[in-house]
Amino acid sequence: MTHDDAFDAYLDYLENLTAQDISRLGDYVSPDVRFSDPFHDVKGVAEMAAIFSKLFGTVQGISFRVRETGSRGSFYFFRWILAGTLRRKQWTIEGVTLLELCTDGKVVSHCEYWDAASQLYEKFPIIGPLLRMLRARIAS
């Protein structure tokens, strides 16, 4: 399987991921995979799977859609939109992920980049208005 084929297969897995499919994560990522996002920086399939499991246990009706993709050598990136319902509110988060594939085509690094302040914290009842005010003050 080429790197491009492995990348396409991983994206298909992510876009169709359900709580029941998390156990197949090891089919796509290396045993010592690094996963990072604004809240986590872990190493290993079990640790990454635990983060996905927590997401599916907390957010209902998850939809993950890949938009644009690109690559250079063994590095791949994609822009995505994650949507779901959390505490009876609809949430949408947009981000970019950088992947590195190892020689066997498995993902050795999965790093997500998205703005937790504007896309998450600013929507919380108490801290949200404070963060929006701070953002406006910095921008002026």
Classify the secondary structure makeup into a structural class.
alpha+beta
How many separate helices? 4
How can the largest sheet be summarized? 6 strands, mixed
Helix and strand run:
HEEHEEEEHH
Report the helical percentage.
Answer: 25-40%
Q: How does the SSE layout of this entry go?
A:
Elements: H1 3-15, E1 29-36, E2 41-43, H2 45-58, E3 60-72, E4 75-86, E5 89-101, E6 107-113, H3 116-119, H4 127-139
Parallel strand pairs: 1-6
Antiparallel strand pairs: 1-2, 3-4, 4-5, 5-6
Keywords:
single chain, 140 residues, alpha+beta, Nuclear Transport Factor 2, Chain: A, six-stranded mixed sheet, 4 helices, 6 strands
Describe it.
The structure is a single chain. The chain has one domain: Nuclear Transport Factor 2, Chain: A (Roll). The protein is an alpha+beta fold. It contains 4 helices and 6 strands; from the N terminus they run αββαββββαα. A 6-stranded mixed sheet has the order 2-1-6-5-4-3. The model has no long low-confidence stretch (mean pLDDT 91). β4 and β5 form a beta hairpin.
Summarize the structure.
The protein has 140 residues and is α+β, with helices and mostly antiparallel strands. The protein has helices at residues 3-15, 45-58, 116-119, 127-139; strands spanning 29-36, 41-43, 60-72, 75-86, 89-101, 107-113.
